[in-house]
Design a protein that fits this description.
CATH topology: UDP-N-acetylmuramoyl-L-alanine:D-glutamate ligase
Strand order of the largest sheet: 5-4-1-8-9-10-11-12-13-14
Largest sheet: 10 strands, mixed
Distance between the termini: 33 Å
Order of helices and strands: EEEHEHEEEHEHEHEHHEEEHHHE
Radius of gyration: 18 Å
Helix content: 25-40%
Number of domains: 1
Number of helices: 10
Shape: globular
CATH architecture: 3-Layer(aba) Sandwich
């Protein structure tokens, strides 16, 4: 089983518009609304592609109830830790004319020490049945930056791998705790390390303690730097960029990594190719948390360079 932990979930609302003209009044169809947040998206993709999963997250107030209802309707195995603050919203506007997606993520409301400790305790308990633990996304105000580092240490105490997709101090502390795989995108890597060159940034994370760093580069594919050969840089990409909605592409990549790790596959080249293929397949779908069925074909098309 793959356990995903999402400390700061969101009720995702996706609007598709013909053209997103700033400053204009737009008439749109009803938003597609579903339970979201990085770890929930990871769990959806992993389950779609055949893995047993458990999505652990929080839920609060009316938006939390909507999130819970959607998880039930989606038949996604989950455990919810109740919190008092309302679950945040995330709004994605997919612009067909310009081929772009604008995302507005609410930061979330502070949760209490008792609430984040309850989430930590639930993660530690559910981890006993897991073969890989995933920590994904931002932390709500009030939660310590050590949360993902604790998740890594708890996973390693049970001899299971930990995959972290975060940013800033929370990511760096998880790296220092020995995270097996981390997957920032280019901007998150720059924010975390201060390095504008993704290769230099990835190597900084390796030096700090990560075993494998995968960096999403958008249309340029994905790069990998491993602790076993830190001077080598592998890049995987498709011959041409795909048009679509990139929201959730990084989460799909994490799902691919978690599946590989849970099944004992740790080769960095294999992880890179599977993660890049899943990420590309996610771009072809209208909403986050799903990938196109041709992900295996996309993997065969990948060009890998050293």
């Amino acid at each position: 089983m793959i356990l995903t932990v999402t400390p700061n979930p969101a009720l995702d609302m996706t609007y598709h518009v013909d053209s997103f003209d700033i400053g204009e009044s737009l008439r749109v169809d009803a938003a597609k609304v579903r339970a979201g947040g990085k770890g929930i998206n990871v769990a959806r993709v992993a389950r779609q592609t055949g893995s047993d999963v458990l999505a652990l997250t929080t839920a609060g107030a009316d938006t939390g109830r909507e999130l819970a209802d959607d998880l039930v309707a989606s038949d996604l195995p989950h455990t919810l830790v109740p919190v008092e603050p309302a679950t945040r919203r995330s709004i994605a506007i997919v612009d067909a004319a310009h081929g772009s997606t604008t995302i507005m993520n609410e930061r979330g409301l502070p949760i209490s020490p008792d609430e984040w400790r309850a989430l930590n305790t639930a993660a530690r308990e559910r981890m006993r049945d897991a073969r890989c633990a995933v920590g994904s996304g931002s932390l709500p105000p009030g939660m310590p930056n050590t949360f993902y580092a604790d998740l890594v240490r708890d996973a390693h105490a049970l001899s299971i791998p930990a995959v972290i997709d975060a940013v800033g101090q929370a990511l760096m502390l998880a790296v220092q705790a020995g995270a097996d795989v981390v997957k920032p995108n280019r901007a998150e890597l720059r924010e975390t390390t201060g390095e504008s060159d993704p290769v230099h940034g990835a190597r900084r994370l390796i030096q700090a303690g990560a075993r494998l760093v995968l960096v999403s580069l958008g249309e340029d594919g994905m790069l990998a730097v491993s602790a076993t050969a830190p001077t080598e840089v592998h890049i995987a990409r498709l011959p041409r960029a795909l048009e679509g909605n990139p929201t959730g592409a990084g989460d799909a990549a994490v799902a691919a990594v978690a599946q590989c790790m849970a099944s004992g596959v740790t080769d960095s080249s294999a992880l890179l190719r599977r993660a890049t293929a899943y990420s590309a397949a996610a771009v072809l779908m209208p909403i986050a948390g799903e990938i196109a069925d041709n992900y295996s074909e996309l993997e065969l098309l990948l060009q890998t360079t050293l």
